[in-house]
Amino acid sequence: MKLEGKVAAITGGTAGLGRGIAEGFLAEGAKVALFARNPEKGEAAARDLSPDGSCAVFIAGDVMNQADIESFVDKTIEAFGTLDVLVNNAGGAGDLQPLVNLSDETFDEAMKWNVYSTFYATRRALPTMLAKKNGRVINISSMEGKHGKPVLTAYSAAKHAVNGLTKSLAREVGAEGVTVNAICPGLVITDIIKNNGPETAKAMGMEFDEMINTFAQEAAIKRPNTVEEIAAMAVLLASDAGAGITGAMLSVDGGTAQY
């Protein structure tokens, strides 16, 4: 029970990596608040994770909306009395286009979805963590935050920004007992990849299966990572064992970006 007594807030917590991280945290004794747009799906996820509602709650909102994000943090604290771990998981690539075809709106959306959401949630959560001189901020970045791919320019720029925020904030709050880290996953076959992957592959001039195989072959392990592997890293960072890790861009990408 590495996280017994801890309270975690997870954006995008009802599916994919966020759901996997929530399951990992609950298995180690934490209580979790999940944030996503779909109330029906979100309530079902919370009931599935904690049938009596004692260990998991769902709070509806749009990660693109500052007021919704800040309310999520506040409502997590109201529900469980405190906040120990913030996981900024919500994000995505959006419309994939070569740079010359990128609209202002598409680039702005990438920043709001990935960077501004992280900024707003973290700024709201920090006072509670700093007051008790203990806390964990875990930002879900990407291997694209370390390098890049064609047509992923806006997404890569956003994830590089998330990594920069992580590094600077770690130095701001490290002496106050708060750690700030980014997990940089490689390819993970989640529902969003299955649903949006064909369009991504098309933008890259590939078939879906060809794209998945190409990405997998870039990794040293020659396969996609699993949700459970990402969640295991999040558990480590959230636990007391992660107290000495901060300002790190931790690759869980099967050896794709070897730095």
Walk me through the structure:
With 259 residues, this protein is of the alpha/beta class. Strands 3-2-1-4-5-6-7 form a seven-stranded parallel beta sheet, with helices on both faces. The longest helix has 28 residues. The two termini are 31 Å apart. The mean pLDDT is 95.
Structural key phrases:
single chain, 259 residues, alpha/beta, Rossmann fold, 2 domains, 7 strands, 47% helix, globular
Topology order in helix (H) and strand (E) letters: EHEHEHEHEHEHHHE
The helical percent reads 40-55%
Number of domains: 2
Q: Uncertain regions: pLDDT < 50 for 5+ in a row?
A: none
CATH topology of the largest domain: Rossmann fold
Count of alpha/pi helices? 8
CATH class of the largest domain: Alpha Beta
Computed over alpha carbons, the radius of gyration is: 17 Å
CATH architecture of the largest domain: 3-Layer(aba) Sandwich
Taken as a percent bin, the fraction of beta residues is 5-15%
Count the strands? 7
How are strands sequenced across the largest beta sheet?
3-2-1-4-5-6-7
In CATH terms, the superfamily of the largest domain is NAD(P)-binding Rossmann-like Domain
Q: For the residues shown, what is the average pLDDT?
A: 95
Q: Categorize the overall geometry.
A: globular
Label the structural class: alpha/beta
